[in-house]
Amino acid sequence: MEFIKTLKFLLEYPIFTINKQQITLINFIVLLLLIAVGKLLGWLITKFISQQLMKTQRVPLGRAYAVTQIAKYLIYALLLIIGLQSTGVNVTVLVASSTALLVGVGLGLQTIFNDFFSGLILLFEGNLQVDDVVQVENLIGRVTEVGFRTSKIITRDGVSIIVPNSRFISNSLVNWSHENPISRFYISVGVAYDSDVEKVKQILLSCALAHESVEKEPAPQVFFEDYADFSLIFRLHFWTNDVFNVETTKSELRYAIWHALKANQITIPFPQREIKIISS
Hints:
3 domains, alpha+beta, 9 helices, five-stranded antiparallel sheet, three-stranded antiparallel sheet
């Protein structure tokens, strides 16, 4: 009985006071328990979404990530309110009394608040999702994280770029992966004027269809693009779902086309000039 009284005394002993509100040891314990519960619920939500939605319902990775983040933030906000209430802080009064302060802070931190609400829009609309391949100005990268204020993108050079979310909302965003996972690209090649154009077409198509990253449907196409000064210009259009590594695919196709043209005695010409020297 004496032990219970001592324990109660220790738990209810005021550590410090904020605005005449005493904060006791038991308040700290409750806050720690709430943090642990929040972490556990976040882990359970991630586990459920990864196992149920992604595997059973076949929900894309980006959409599942957005749902997970929104659910986590809602849980954290709810637990924060419960934690404040448990310490005796009246949340309604706290918000009302700090309205003027929040307005002043908001005016000074407009950019940060703009990024914050832009992150909310991105998560709810789903226009930018994890694993999307996007173009930011002249940089192309894969989205690795969509946060509330910033998002992370890793470029083809392995460089991680942190981008404020407001840039995705206020500027035009090129999203190579949005809705349609495949995109069309092309490479051009010039052949000599005496080449068999039908044979060139078949070589280009066979090289494209033989590559594992090129989609068979829609099928690749070859266009006779132009009559240049020294060559006939052909353009090979192909579709691929590996947008992030498309430059590697283009390079491998050029290697294959070079060897195939050479094996069929079809030359790729280079510019030539005739110089006539008139003697006096």
